[in-house]
Design a protein that fits this description.
Blueprint (H helix, E strand, L loop, with lengths): L5 E4 H4 L7 H8 L3 E4 L7 H15 L9 E5 L10 H8 L6 E5 L5 H15 L5 E7 L12 H4 L5 E7 L8 E9 L7 E2 L30 H5 L6 E2 L1 H22 L9 E4 L4 H10 L11 H4 L6 H11 L8 E8 L3 E8 L1
Parallel strand pairs: 3-4, 3-5, 10-11
Antiparallel strand pairs: 1-2, 5-6, 7-12, 8-9, 11-12
The protein binds coenzyme A (COA).
Length: 339
């Protein structure tokens, strides 16, 4: 994992917006988050720092990596994706690089893709990265406070390889989506939607000049270039889908919640994790939470949590570990691992 050194407390955010430490802690559990250096750090460079550590710990080298999967919603460029920037920065061979755009469930989706490539025998050393630089794209006025206080920057990475025995493996992965609520947690602009899916008229796409539609002054003037979220709707769906997809993973492999050594949920909101814990009747030591210190880092949250859990000795060889995520789309996913 890699997180920027700059710590931003809840109190620090009160300089920009009408909010308070109490409100943020009570509703989300977040105490502080990290923000990347404005110009010295990007989503890709943070991913790179995490990737270096993952590659070293896997006892391999960047030249041995035969495929890259990069999950993020805050890429350095609109295109090309971060995967190729990482391939270049790490001086890798001309290997395939795939970008995953699944927001909070991006890392679990990426793990699932890597698992299939490994199972088919196509690749042997897949680098999977999740990274985000949210601090560049949030609305720091009071208008955006319901979203901005939640998110933080950081990165995590793993190297996935075929295992020679049955003790260390991805047992199964489970991926889902329901686009019915796509706009409930979304950033519309810049994009090519031209209001097609939206009830509200965001910009004058019908009258704007060619060349002024993708990114216009109207969008900037009306603050339509930031993420939107109906927090309560996200919360309600998350507390149903998280337990469902975790149970799907356990049932598929004939396990029960009590068999889990550790559940590592996407760090969306501490209240959501606590709700899931209660619903599945898990003990405190069976659920890992670190949102208190990093906020919600979207595609990076699970690999950051996985790394901290492993470093703290919370997971050991052969342990049953479940990764689970829910987020924008909506998309949700789980992966059951024998560590
Ligand atoms: C976002 C979330 C914390 C908001 O909490 P909530 O209890 O639903 O709060 P509401 O949105 O109903 O807003 C309640 C009030 O707090 C205010 N408020 C919103 N953000 C605030 C902030 N940062 N500081 C202070 N007040 C805030 C609202 O304006 C509203 O004020 P009003 O009652 O005067 O209108 C909560 O809905 C949530 O966590 N949802 C899930 C979000 C999530 O996990 N997203 C990531 C998915 S991967």
């Amino acid at each position: 994992m890699y997180v920027p050194s700059h710590v931003v407390t809840n109190h620090d955010l009160t300089q920009y917006m009408d909010t308070s430490d109490e409100w943020i802690r009570e509703r989300t559990g977040i105490i502080e988050r990290r923000y990347a250096h404005r110009t010295d750090e990007t989503t890709t460079t943070m991913g790179l720092e995490a990737a270096r550590i993952a590659i070293e710990r896997a006892g391999t080298t960047p030249q041995d990596i035969d495929f890259v999967i990069f999950a993020t919603l805050s890429p350095d460029y609109y295109f090309p994706g971060c995967g190729v920037l990482l391939q270049r920065a790490m001086k890798m061979k001309e290997v395939g690089a795939l970008d995953v755009r699944n927001q909070c469930s991006g890392f679990v989706y990426a793990i699932s893709v890597a698992d299939q490539f490994i199972r088919s025998g196509m690749y042997k050393n897949i680098l999977v990265v999740g990274a985000e630089k949210h601090s560049f794209g949030l609305d720091f006025s009071t208008r955006g406070r319901n979203v901005s206080v939640i998110f933080g920057d950081g990165a995590g990475a793993v190297v996935m390889q075929p295992s020679s025995d049955d003790k260390h493996k991805v047992l199964s992965t489970h991926l889902h989506s329901d686009g019915e609520s796509a706009e409930i947690l979304a950033m519309y602009n810049p994009g090519t939607h031209a209001n097609y899916w939206l009830d509200e008229k965001l910009a004058d796409f019908d009258t704007a000049e060619l060349g002024e539609m993708f990114f216009s002054h109207t969008m900037i003037d009306n603050a339509q270039v930031f993420p939107n979220m109906d927090g309560q709707a996200v919360f309600k769906k998350a507390v149903v889908k998280f337990p469902e997809v975790i149970m799907e993973a356990l049932d598929s492999n004939n396990y029960k919640p009590a068999d889990l050594k550790l559940l590592i949920p996407h760090q969306a909101n501490l209240r959501i994790s606590q709700f899931v814990q209660q619903k599945l009747r898990l003990r405190d030591d069976q659920v890992f939470n670190n949102i208190q210190h990093y906020g919600n880092t979207t595609a990076a949250s699970i690999p950051i949590a996985l790394c901290e859990a492993w470093e703290q000795g919370r997971i050991n060889e052969g342990d049953l570990v479940c990764l689970a995520a829910f987020g924008s789309g909506f998309t949700w996913a789980s992966a059951l691992l024998k560590w």
